[in-house]
Design goal:
The complex is a heterodimer of chains A (338) and B (342).
Chain A (H helix, E strand, L loop, with lengths): L8 E12 L2 E13 L4 E5 L6 H9 L6 E13 L5 E5 L8 H6 L4 E4 L3 H4 L6 H12 L4 H14 L5 H4 L9 H13 L5 E5 L7 H18 L2 E6 L2 H7 L2 E6 L2 E7 H6 L4 H9 L50 E2 L5 E2 L7
Parallel strand pairs in A: 3-8, 3-9, 6-7, 7-8
Antiparallel strand pairs in A: 1-2, 1-4, 4-5, 9-10, 10-12, 11-12
Helix pairs in contact in A: 4-5, 4-7, 5-7, 7-8
Chain B lengths: L10 E14 L4 E16 L4 E5 L6 H8 L7 E7 L5 E3 L5 H8 L2 E4 L13 H11 L5 H14 L16 H13 L5 E5 L7 H18 L2 E6 L2 H7 L2 E6 L2 E7 H6 L4 H9 L39 H5 L5 E4 L2 E3 L16
Parallel strand pairs in B: 3-8, 3-9, 6-7, 7-8
Antiparallel strand pairs in B: 1-2, 1-4, 4-5, 9-10, 10-12, 11-12
The chains are: A alpha/beta (338), B alpha/beta (342).
Chain lengths: 338, 342
């Protein structure tokens, strides 16, 4: 199979809205992207941009009053008998057998807070073995072997002992490693890492990131890496999507996003972070105002009230489409519309 | 007050220790101590920003709370030069003696959601310190609150609103206004921007720097974010498991670290540039527990420069070059990579 050209997952015009008493929150409002094998696909954005809701939609765990309103999420997979098939995750029943097989099997998640994600009353081993037995046709003993192997693979010291411990007996770094081991235990095609290092320290973060990189290179799977930290995204991702208020502002290869950003939001975001290399104690360029409340998302381009390139009569009237600029880079801004 | 550098520091911390007892069993017998802050020394000059960095559990928050006497230290001295010019030891003062000094030391908190009472209006929140210290006239307080809100970039008309009407960045400004209400001289900022979105972090950092210039403030800036610390601090102190491992000017510390732990922190920092690959330094293991620290130098199990002396003997915290302190046996011989500012 030609892996390089064929995407694993295609998301087309995905919309997730939350129907609240106060009104409709358009958390994700028409985003599209392709995930290729061997790619680390970064989604970066500030709070409320819809990056976590996108992740939840892919796993079909959006809680009511949220609903996938429209869009397709096409997963291209190989069946056990070797034939290729395509399933639209948006059409599956969220609690149906098929979706339950995909969730944890083909698409696995590394959540942000491993402390909250592990059950405190079951051992780590119990939980990993349960996952393996749900998705693979193996007995208890074989599943335990796989779990041990996975823990060893992510660098947990003395895994035989750790397997029978509870999550609260592990340190933050080990807990996150155990979580990664669990996510990888069923050889997923796609691994979603939702802010996997926000809750850990800098030196642990470096360890976890390196581990993810190594595993990804070994297995040639795809990682969807969600974070608000531009430093982490620069170090981890191959391809980056910048989101703001439920929309994609810009998409492109990591080098282009950081060295040739096109959208005013991306540019302003990059300029506003203090770096080791910038002049200390000077006024940083800022983005004026703050992120609007999702109930009153501005008309037109949702970034226009904070934008330095605002064009009256255009940006506040229509919503810009995501159009290609140069090779592989897409931007939704009227500056680039012909 | 002149702007020339004052030789006497505003605050000098000497041999500060804070141990928390570990109690076990029915009789709650003390079976050991968590050495949260274990014999640290540093000073802050008037008008400067001292950064206190380290990973979680290293004691940076405990140290800053001791200075404000939210904790009573186990032992040590905290010499504070008051606005009248005399030096007092904050560690020895009783509560009534502390009260007049509290106005001179204020705190900015990390979480702008948890640190503001949702049932109080901005006028109540920012005006409370004024009321407590004797400003009973409502009109007078209103004027001062309006002035403070203006100072931090909020409209004075917001005074009657509640915190829920404001975004994270605006809430942090409210917290800053409250901290400045009594004209403090020392402001302890505990991770003031880490809960904020990237696009509002810069606004808050600019505000802190501007306020420092205008009001001649002294900051103790506690953070784990090295990029922010490099940007805002004059000098930086690095803590590891309750001890200070290195102190130097920000420029010097980042360009030429003297302690292997500092170098490891710098190497682990993800730089927002895909062309510079970071995080390749192997730092094995995890942060030691302050309840059961390793022998000798606390960092030795993770240190790649470790020799026999490091396993048995705790290194002294000493001046390596003028103004650059480090606690490492081999600080003079090893050559550590820093980050060159370009």
């Amino acid at each position: 199979m030609d892996n390089a050209s064929r995407p694993l997952l295609q998301v087309k015009d995905l919309r997730v809205h939350f129907f609240m008493d106060e009104g409709v929150v358009k958390a994700v409002d028409g985003i599209s992207f392709d995930i290729h094998p061997g790619q680390v696909f970064g989604i970066v954005g500030e709070s409320g941009c819809g990056k976590s809701v996108t992740m939840k939609a892919l796993l079909r765990i959006v809680e009511p009053p949220g609903r996938i309103v429209s869009g397709e999420m096409l997963l291209h997979r190989t069946r056990k008998d070797g034939t290729a098939e395509t399933v639209d995750l948006a059409q599956l029943h969220p609690r149906g057998q098929e979706m339950r097989e995909v969730r944890g099997g083909e698409i696995a998640l590394i959540p942000q807070e491993p402390m909250a994600a592990f059950s405190p009353v079951h051992t780590i081993g119990n939980q990993i073995i349960e996952t393996i037995r749900l998705h693979r046709d193996v007995n208890e003993r074989a599943a335990r072997k796989i779990a041990l192997q996975q823990l060893r693979n992510v660098g947990v010291p003395s895994p035989e002992q750790r397997l029978d411990e509870f999550s609260w007996q592990l340190s933050g770094g080990l807990r996150q490693r155990a979580m990664i081991a669990m996510a990888l235990s069923c050889n997923p095609l796609i691994l979603i890492a939702d802010e996997p290092t926000t809750a850990v320290d800098v030196t642990t973060q470096a360890q976890v990131l390196r581990l993810l990189r190594r595993l990804q290179e070994e297995r040639n799977s795809a990682i969807i890496f969600i974070t608000h930290d531009l430093g982490v995204i620069a170090q981890m991702a191959d391809y980056v999507t910048v989101m703001y208020l439920g929309l994609v502002m810009e998409q492109g290869p990591v080098d282009q996003i950081f060295h040739a950003p096109k959208h005013p939001y991306t540019r302003a975001l990059l300029e506003s972070i203090p770096s080791i290399h910038t002049e200390p104690r000077i006024d940083l360029p800022t983005i004026s105002g703050s992120i609007p409340h999702p109930f009153n998302r501005p008309a037109g381009c949702s970034f226009h009230p904070r934008c330095t390139e605002f064009m009256a009569g255009v940006c506040d009237q229509q919503t810009p489409a995501l159009i290609p600029v140069g090779e592989k880079q897409l931007v939704s801004c009227f500056l680039y519309h012909p | 007050m002149s702007t020339q550098p004052t030789p006497a520091p505003l605050l000098e911390v000497r041999n500060l220790k804070k141990y928390f007892p570990i109690r076990k069993g029915f009789l709650r017998k003390t079976v050991g101590y968590v050495r949260a802050v274990d014999d640290i020394n540093f000073f802050i000059n008037e008008g400067e920003t001292l950064g206190l960095v380290g990973e979680s559990g290293c004691g940076k928050t405990t140290a800053s709370r001791c200075i404000l006497r939210a904790h009573t230290p186990t032992s040590g001295q905290m010499l504070f030069r008051t606005d009248k010019g005399d030096v007092v030891d904050l560690a020895q003062l009783s509560r009534p003696q502390l009260k007049p000094l509290r106005a001179q030391m204020q705190m900015i908190f990390q979480d702008p959601y948890g640190s503001l009472n949702p049932r109080m209006t901005l006028f109540d929140i920012v005006g409370e310190p004024l009321y407590v210290t004797g400003m009973r006239n409502r009109k007078e307080r209103e004027d001062r609150v309006a002035e403070l809100l203006g100072l931090v970039g909020l409209r004075p008309e917001f005074m009657q609103r509640f915190p829920h009407a404001f975004s994270g960045g605006q809430r942090q400004r409210i917290g800053i206004a409250r901290a400045l209400a009594l004209n403090p001289r020392l402001v302890v900022a505990d991770e003031p921007v880490s809960a904020l979105d990237v696009s509002v972090q810069a606004q808050t950092l600019n505000l802190l720097l501007n306020l420092q210039k205008r009001l001649h403030l002294t900051y103790l800036f506690v953070s784990h974010n090295l990029s922010v610390v490099k940007h805002i601090c004059d000098r930086v102190t690095v803590m590891y498991v309750g001890k200070i491992v290195e102190t130097a000017t920000a420029q010097e510390l980042f360009a030429r670290p003297r302690h292997p732990y500092t170098a490891a922190l710098l190497a682990a920092l993800p730089v927002a540039d895909p062309r510079i690959k970071t995080g390749n330094v192997e730092l094995a293991g995890e942060v030691a527990s302050p309840a059961r620290p390793p022998s000798g130098c606390y960092f030795h199990p993770r240190c790649s420069f470790c020799v026999d002396q490091c396993r048995t003997e705790a290194p002294a915290y000493r001046e390596i070059t003028p103004g650059h302190y480090a606690a490492c046996h081999r600080a003079d011989e090893i050559n550590l990579a820093g980050i060159s500012s370009g």
